[in-house]
Specification:
This protein is α+β, with helices and mostly antiparallel strands. Among the domains are: 144 residues, no CATH class; 141 residues, no CATH class. The strands form two sheets. It has a 41-stranded mixed β-sheet that branches. A two-stranded antiparallel ribbon has the order 22-23. A hairpin with a 2-residue loop joins β12 and β13. α4 packs antiparallel against α5 and α10 packs antiparallel against α11.
């Protein structure tokens, strides 16, 4: 009996150990624990319903634990199904006696499920505002997950869990209705650290990729960093116009490689943003309608092409940009190099630009650089809230150099101050100019060896002025003028120019300048502004170089000139008087005399010249139109009375009366008869006077005449006035 009992117990022990060995190695499949596991999970998370299939049990003998594995289970959360590939957990046998939770871990892997279902699953375990936001903006996409959780004795998931997985074809519809599409990436989450790899997405047709994105949570702060790239793409204009206002770029094609980092707090506020980026702009178009640019660069259209620009960008406490590349101005290539720094309310710019292939023009200085002449523009400036300070601006072309130092421009784009301006150049008339303006306390000294006054005199006498450009702010400025010599044109020079100019803002308040020609002939110019009226007076003992400014007068000799003008707003009223001169050439008059059968006078005009005692012209200028109220000239041979208008570069329209001196003699009986010289030898050629019209484009004038037998009262009155004043 004892022997039988021994055999029984040995067999029983052997069966027990064989069973344990079998369970340890092969395990068994059963449905017995399904309800237990589902109930345990439901006790902690009532909204989760776990539907298990057969469970495989394997005993870990030495640790007194049971490994439980099931395949293809389904988890339902709020009527959303989550399909799993495999779920495994470990049950601590000792907990059965201690009445603990028993399940010590939970591991699972899923099929590709809808992203929204996964988010709901995550929120069921541990909800957060971040998950709520992600749930709201998520659209489409599938996700698979491999997860390992540790569970404490109370059935709570510990924080050191590991989740890995992959997202495919996911989209985000942001709160501003922008959409990020085709998001694909692999992820890994462990102990508050999330990393993303193999990232690809599409934002406004911009393909973005990354091999390293990190998200780390420290207390209530999320630290995000990584690398992003985009291959060469045409950038949707909306992508940057939404963030950078008033930017005029079109057809931007670029690629980039960037490293970044930033932090997000619990209120979703971004801070400590840092970015380092290398940007390669293949091409772009910059649109501009800037009138100043077009005045300086006469061939400039409304577009500048940007090509092959390589840019380095750093963003942190401020922005640093450096780059170089090509600009195409009117399809002519120029090279550009630049550095830009922006820190809080301060900016710095260092720019170098070639202008080798494009013409350059400064109308105020009568300067023009032709195409295919080397030229370099360099500018260094600082900007703060109050001012733009141009530390140095230089333009160098062959022997020409323009240099500006410490020029201050206020926030209304007006010049408030400068230290010095140096100009050394050859103008369009081949005149060499050498000028320097320096500030001494509150006064500016303008001096030099030579400076051409050609354009300034032309504007003063003819009223050919463009609309005033407001360069300066509204301060009062005194300029003292001192030059050794100044060119009137390439044939005439004045010496020892001196005086002063007072500007209030950009307008001349007062001006007084005096100079002289080589033969001690005096020249003076004064301007005085009062009650919005600007009065200009000009006088010269030597008239010829100034009369030449009126293009319709040629072959002028001798004479003195006196000019006065009154200007209110954009309209000027002027009077020009020239005394004791003669003309050798006056094309329109020569033709007029010939048509009027006054060939004798025409011959004199083209030979020795016709002498005049006085020429008087009264005219007004408004915009591009000169209205001639009256031109009256009287001389021993002929007198002329004329009126009309000149539309600049478009139309000349004049009409008037021409009277030989013989007719005037008969009327006033005071001037000797010139006989055949004046009226010709042929019978019937003598006339009292001639009415005429001159009209047409400036280079194609048509002249018509009509002999008259009586003089107009206006002509008689003006002639009597002149003779009376002479006597």
């Amino acid at each position: 009996m004892i022997k039988i009992l021994k055999i029984f117990f040995v067999s029983l022990i052997l069966i027990f150990f064989v069973s344990l060995t079998y369970l340890s190695i092969f395990g068994i499949e059963t449905n017995s624990f399904n309800k237990l596991i589902s109930d345990k999970i439901r006790n902690i998370h009532p909204e989760i319903d776990v539907k298990l299939k057969k469970i495989k049990l394997t005993i870990e003998l030495f640790e007194l634990k049971v490994l439980i594995v099931t395949k293809n289970p389904v988890i339902e959360i709020s009527n959303k199904k989550l399909n799993l590939k495999k779920v495994s957990t470990t049950y601590d046998i000792k907990s059965f006696f201690k009445k603990d939770f028993g399940i010590t871990n939970l591991n699972f892997s899923t099929d590709y499920n809808e992203v929204k279902n996964i988010i709901k699953f995550a929120r069921a375990f541990k909800d957060s505002p971040q998950l709520l936001i992600i749930d709201k903006v998520s659209k489409g996409g599938k996700l698979n997950i491999n997860a390992r959780f540790k569970i404490n004795q109370k059935g709570e998931i510990e924080n050191n869990y590991l989740i890995t997985g992959e997202v495919k074809d996911y989209s985000l519809k942001l709160f501003n209705n922008d959409e990020i599409k085709k998001i694909n990436f692999k992820f890994k989450y462990k102990e508050k650290n999330t990393s993303l790899t193999d990232v690809n997405l599409d934002y406004k047709n911009l393909a973005i990729s990354s091999n390293d994105l990190q998200l780390i949570k420290i207390n209530n702060i999320y630290k995000i960093s990584g690398n992003i790239k985009n291959s060469k793409s045409k950038i949707d204009q909306e992508l940057y116009s939404n963030y950078i206002k008033n930017i005029n770029f079109k057809n931007l094609i670029l690629s980039s490689d960037s490293n970044f980092s930033f932090e997000v707090d619990k209120k979703l506020k971004f801070k400590k943003f840092n970015l380092k980026s290398n940007i390669d702009i293949e091409s772009a178009e910059y649109l501009t309608n800037n009138k100043i640019f077009k005045e300086i660069l006469p061939n400039l259209t409304n577009k500048i092409d940007i090509k092959n620009n390589k840019i380095s960008l750093e963003y942190g406490d401020g922005i640093k940009i450096s780059g170089r590349g090509e600009l195409f101005i009117s399809e002519k290539k120029e090279n550009i190099e630049y550095k830009i720094e922006n820190f809080k309310n301060r900016s710095k710019v260092d720019l170098n630009l070639s202008l080798n292939q494009n013409p350059l023009k400064f109308s105020l200085l009568n300067f023009y650089k032709n195409e295919d002449v080397k030229c370099q523009l360099n500018i260094k400036l600082n900007k703060n809230k109050q001012n733009i300070i141009i530390e140095n601006l230089s333009i160098t072309s062959e022997k020409n150099k323009f240099n500006v130092n410490n020029l201050k421009i206020n926030n209304k784009n007006k010049i408030s101050d400068f230290k010095s301006i140096k100009l050394k150049y050859e103008d369009k008339d081949k005149i060499k100019n050498d000028l320097i303006i320096t500030k001494n306390k509150k006064t500016y000294l303008v001096e030099g060896n030579n400076f051409s006054l050609n354009s300034i005199i032309n504007d003063t006498l003819t009223g050919d002025k463009k609309k005033n450009v407001e360069f300066f702010d509204n301060q009062r400025r005194l300029f003292n003028i001192k030059f050794d010599q100044n060119d009137i044109d390439k044939d005439h020079v004045i010496n020892d120019l001196s005086g002063e100019i007072i500007l209030i803002g950009s307008k001349i308040n007062s001006l007084s300048l005096n100079s002289k020609f080589k033969k001690n002939q005096k020249v003076s110019l004064s301007i005085l502004t009062k009650n919005n009226e600007q009065v200009t007076t000009f006088y010269s003992d030597f008239a010829k170089p100034f009369v030449k400014k009126f293009n319709f007068i040629k072959g002028f000799e001798e004479g003195k000139i006196n000019f006065s003008s009154s200007k209110i707003n954009n309209t000027s009223s002027s009077q020009l008087n020239i005394y004791d001169f003669k003309l050798k050439e006056l094309p329109a008059l020569t033709k007029l005399l010939t048509l009027a059968s006054l060939q004798g006078i025409a011959d004199i005009l083209t030979g020795e010249g016709v002498r005049f005692n006085e020429f008087e012209m009264i005219f007004t200028n408004k915009d591009d139109k000169m209205t001639i109220d009256e031109i009256y000239s009287i001389g021993p041979a002929i007198s002329i009375l004329m009126e009309g208008y000149v539309q600049k570069n478009k139309l000349v329209s004049l009409k008037g009366t021409l009277v030989p001196a013989t007719t005037i003699n008969k009327f006033v009986s005071s001037i000797p008869i010139l006989g055949n010289i004046l009226v010709g030898k042929k019978t019937g050629e003598g006339v009292f006077g001639v009415s005429f019209k001159i009209k047409g484009p400036p280079k194609n004038l048509k002249t018509t005449v009509n002999p008259i037998k009586t003089l107009t009262p206006r002509f008689i009155t003006r002639t009597l006035e002149k003779i009376k004043n002479t006597n």
